[in-house]
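Hi support team,

I've been running sequence recovery on a batch of backbones for a student project. Most finish fine, but this one hangs at about 90% for roughly twenty minutes before it completes. I'm not sure whether the input is malformed or the queue is just slow. I've pasted the structure tokens below so you can try to reproduce it. Let me know if you need the job ID as well.

Thanks,
M.K.
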């Protein structure tokens, strides 16, 4: 049995190009039979493959005493193999309370963060995980029940790259029973996580209840779901590649997103229409997808609106922070940024500091100086920076967006000018104007329209003794 399993894993390493001889691999070691079998098999192969191994264990802190014993057992066994051992103890319950995150999602996030940090620290280019065929079946079935699309049916990928490290799973087509049998035959010490029996987790209910029941209709259900995942991995990969080629050919960047021709879009196959929309949503933000697992509702809302002819101009908030526009033959999908007057203004006290206006993507730098020579040389000619007479300012300053009736006093102009007229003269697109920042002082006087005009207030003169420097860093879409 054991020699057959080792040969099976080695065959997988070769066929799927998971390892190269001489690789340094971090092995994610939970202490359960799956990961123990994986480390033992890779250790047996390490001589002929010239592998350098590092075991990495995470104590999540959910079961303090039980987890401590598991970590100690894992450390002792790994030491007997002569393999370096890296470990970390986390306080997941506290992290979940602070962030409000789902427990399993939070655990996965911090576990992967530790494994990647370990790989970078020890110089490993790969991380091996012990996900097996039963895990794959659970994942595919769980996604089916949630209403996934073709991409979700891929299940757990055999390999993928994150932060220049390749994550791979050589046990993905081996069932759990074979791994437990391997550990038993070799007398390998492993732990059983008691939380795996708790039905409060969806995955546990799938494993303990749904799969056994459905296996009454098909005793080889896990194998069937695994084959489905393999099939969909190839087909989804092909369609993804074709969609990326299509995107490169017809999509052009626009304000906060991408635009393309309605005529070209209408001529695409239905599958590519949906794929193109989902690809753009993914490019915009990981949060652009809607609440349904497949994103079908959001995708269809956009697709149908894109194909309509009337009215000729249409703007739709399609959810998830995304905005769809149809302007005659031009379609666009973009981020739906709030004007920060719709959220809040930002107060700025006297002193050095940085401020990121998340609603608009503009980052500000503020500096105090007693010497003009310490400031950037181009501050006079650069519209994205301004210098003020510090002693002529009334703090706190305020960053907000334009309000109805705003006026700015411009140097050399007798009187003031409407901010709206300034933006019209500068040919600022109307839909951008509500997002542009306005800097005022505590008395409500407009000091600066970053990127466009500076006011006649607090002008630097030869009598100025203290200087307040402000610089705006705009995202590219606001400076086009």
């Amino acid at each position: 049995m054991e020699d057959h399993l080792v040969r099976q894993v080695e065959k997988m390493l070769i066929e799927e190009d998971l390892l190269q001889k001489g690789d340094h691999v971090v092995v994610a070691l939970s202490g359960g039979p799956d990961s123990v079998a994986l480390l033992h098999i890779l250790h047996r192969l390490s001589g002929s493959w010239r592998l350098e191994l590092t075991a990495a264990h995470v104590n999540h802190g959910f079961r303090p005493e039980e987890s401590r014993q598991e970590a100690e057992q894992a450390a002792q066994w790994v030491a007997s193999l002569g393999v370096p051992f890296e470990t970390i103890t986390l306080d997941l319950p506290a992290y979940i309370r602070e962030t409000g995150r789902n427990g399993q999602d939070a655990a996965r996030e911090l576990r992967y963060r530790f494994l990647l940090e370990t790989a970078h620290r020890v110089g490993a280019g790969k991380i091996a995980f012990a996900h097996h065929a039963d895990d794959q079946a659970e994942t595919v079935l769980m996604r089916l029940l949630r209403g996934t699309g073709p991409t979700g049916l891929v299940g757990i990928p055999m390999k993928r790259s994150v932060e220049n490290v390749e994550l791979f799973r050589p046990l993905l087509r081996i069932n759990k029973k074979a791994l437990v049998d391997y550990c038993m035959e070799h007398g390998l010490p492993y732990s059983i996580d008691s939380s795996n029996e708790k039905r409060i987790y969806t995955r546990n209910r799938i494993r303990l209840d749904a799969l056994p029941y459905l296996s009454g209709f098909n005793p080889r259900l896990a194998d069937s779901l695994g084959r489905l995942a393999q099939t969909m991995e190839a087909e989804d990969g092909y369609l993804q590649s074709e969609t990326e080629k299509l995107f490169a050919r017809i999509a052009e960047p626009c304000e906060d997103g991408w635009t393309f021709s309605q005529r070209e879009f209408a001529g695409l196959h239905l599958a590519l229409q949906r794929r193109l929309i989902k690809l753009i949503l993914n490019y915009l933000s990981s949060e652009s997808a809607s609440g349904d697992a497949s994103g079908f509702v959001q995708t269809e809302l956009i697709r149908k609106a894109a194909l309509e002819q009337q009215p000729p101009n249409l703007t739709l908030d399609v959810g998830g922070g995304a905005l769809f526009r149809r302007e005659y033959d031009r379609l666009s999908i973009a981020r739906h940024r709030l004007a920060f007057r719709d959220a809040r203004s930002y107060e700025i006290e006297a002193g050095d500091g940085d401020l990121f206006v998340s609603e608009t993507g503009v980052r500000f730098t503020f500096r105090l100086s007693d010497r003009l020579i310490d400031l950037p040389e181009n501050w006079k000619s650069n519209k994205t920076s301004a210098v003020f007479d510090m002693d002529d300012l009334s703090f706190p300053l305020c960053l907000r967006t334009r309000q109805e009736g705003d006026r700015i006093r411009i140097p050399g102009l007798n009187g003031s000018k409407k901010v709206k007229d300034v933006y019209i003269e500068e040919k600022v697109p109307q839909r951008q104007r509500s997002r542009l920042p306005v800097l005022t002082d505590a008395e409500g006087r407009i000091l600066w329209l970053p990127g466009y005009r500076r006011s006649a207030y607090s002008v630097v003169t030869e009598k100025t003794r203290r200087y307040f420097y402000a610089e705006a860093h705009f995202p590219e879409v606001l400076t086009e």
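--
Follow-up from support: It reproduced on our side and the slowdown came from queue contention, not your input. The two ends are 65 Å apart (CA to CA). No action needed from you.
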